[in-house]
UniProtKB/TrEMBL annotation:
Keywords: Isoprene biosynthesis, Magnesium, Manganese, Metal-binding, NADP, Oxidoreductase. Its cofactor is Mg(2+); Mn(2+). NADPH binds at residues 26-28, 137, 139, 216. Residues 19-145 form the 1-deoxy-D-xylulose 5-phosphate reductoisomerase N-terminal domain. Signal peptide: none annotated. Belongs to the DXR family. This is 1-deoxy-D-xylulose 5-phosphate reductoisomerase. The keyword Oxidoreductase applies. 1-deoxy-D-xylulose 5-phosphate binds at residues 138, 162-163, 187, 210, 223, 228-229, 232. It catalyses: 2-C-methyl-D-erythritol 4-phosphate + NADP(+) = 1-deoxy-D-xylulose 5-phosphate + NADPH + H(+). Residues 272-388 form the DXP reductoisomerase C-terminal domain. PANTHER family: 1-DEOXY-D-XYLULOSE 5-PHOSPHATE REDUCTOISOMERASE, 1-DEOXY-D-XYLULOSE 5-PHOSPHATE REDUCTOISOMERASE, CHLOROPLASTIC.
């Protein structure tokens, strides 16, 4: 059995596939629901989780006849919208409920669209429970790849990020030992070509205007700083067993080539398609089959000319910091990610400048002592400690 065969169900795929969507009210979650809506004969949403969007959870539960709902934010127990969730639906609250949800016998597939490090426990539990894990929670893979990847059977963990889905598709039928390098494409974000002086003056509202994708606020800011691309470098490193320095970031403003793989003989495979996240989501849910497209098809006769460029790691230092963390390994990516989550939120709230995100992350990394990854508990402790350090650095930056 090779890396791309699906071992999660002993080679036989259930139909309909019983799906649990974690983070169902977010961007990836709502697009996953759209895919499930279009393929209701093949996909059945049996469980969802939201952080605190109880009214949205209730609406989803009613539409899809969901059997299990988890509200992660426990203080939402008294939310009036809880009463709108059908009586036939089992409702639970808290992080532990999320972990219990993914291990249920009536769940075949877990779509993890939780934002940030918070999704690591559920991802770990899903793999341990032998569920098909459709993964959009890159941060927990960046931090805990050393723990998660050894648990993943061939074809059990399928990426949803458009770039990693592209790499996955380029590698179907290929041997990983033949990979020379990966070309990870990048739109360049809203500030492509700007100097550091110009970047020092940008505001959160500017950074939230991504030129191509419609995403949640956290990932949109990460895309503007290029930290998102740094996280994706580390994600590719873990998913495909490629050294960090063999994952090359390639700026492609048209966002139609979603990534490429170069092989030892010099041949390059590229995956092209519309800029629509429902396509990689659907592929992850349909693999190894392909279903009718959920998107408009591309007219390549009238498509714009493609251009490629190199990412500016001096102007966008977060990319360089993420790669440094990946090269060092151990707990340093967890430190880096925790500091970025603190700094990203602070920038969105107007508590620091755009370039301060990089400064906060860099200084927090300098103050850390990386250790080999040993357990989830260790990573949680490193994450919590690093957030405290980052907040201290933030208070110095804000003076």
């Amino acid at each position: 059995m090779n890396f791309f065969e699906n071992a999660a169900f002993g080679g036989k795929r259930p139909e309909p596939l019983r799906v649990a969507i974690l983070g169902a009210s977010g961007s990836i979650g709502t697009q996953t629901l759209d895919v499930c809506r279009q393929h209701s004969d093949k996909l059945r949403v049996v469980a969802i989780s939201v952080f605190g969007s109880v009214a949205k959870a209730a609406a989803i539960a009613r539409e899809f006849s969901v059997e299990h709902v988890v509200i992660v934010e426990e203080q939402r127990k008294g939310d009036p919208a809880v009463a709108q969730i059908p009586d036939s639906c089992d409702v639970s609250f808290g992080d532990d409920a999320l972990v219990d949800l993914v291990a249920r016998d009536d769940v075949d597939c877990v779509v993890s669209a939780v934002v940030g490090f918070a999704g690591i426990n559920a991802g770990y539990a899903a793999l341990k429970a032998n569920k098909l894990l459709v993964y959009a929670n890159k941060e927990s893979l960046v931090c805990g790849g050393d723990l998660l990847m050894p648990l993943a059977k061939p074809g059990q963990l399928i990426p949803v990020d458009s770039e990693h889905s592209a790499i996955f598709q380029c590698l179907v039928g290929e041997r990983r030992s033949d990979i020379y390098r990966v070309w990870l494409t990048c739109s360049g974000g809203p500030f492509y070509g700007m100097s550091r002086e110009e970047l020092s003056r940008v505001k959160p509202a500017d950074a939230l205007r991504h030129p191509t994708w419609h995403m949640g606020e956290k990932i949109t800011i990460d895309s503007a700083t290029l930290m998102n691309k740094g996280l994706e470098v580390l994600e590719a490193h873990h998913l495909f067993g490629v050294e960090v320095d063999r994952v090359n970031v390639l700026v492609h403003r048209q966002s139609m080539v979603h990534s490429m793989v170069e092989f030892s003989d010099g041949v390059v495979k590229a995956q092209l398609g519309p800029s629509d996240m429902r396509i990689p989501i659907q592929y992850a849910l349909s693999y190894p089959d392909r279903w009718e497209t959920p998107s408009d098809r591309v007219d390549y006769w009238s498509a714009p000319d493609f251009s490629f460029g190199k990412a500016d790691e001096e102007a966008f230092g977060c990319l360089a910091l993420a790669k440094e963390a990946g090269r060092t390994g151990g707990t340093l990516p967890t430190v880096m990610n925790a500091a970025n989550e603190v700094a990203n939120y602070a920038f969105r709230c107007g508590q620091c400048g755009f370039l301060d995100v990089e400064r906060i992350v860099g200084h927090t990394m300098e103050l850390s002592e990386p250790q080999p990854v040993e357990s989830l508990q260790q990573l949680h402790e490193v994450d919590e400690r690093s957030r405290e350090v980052a907040r201290s650095v933030l208070s110095e930056v804000g003076r």
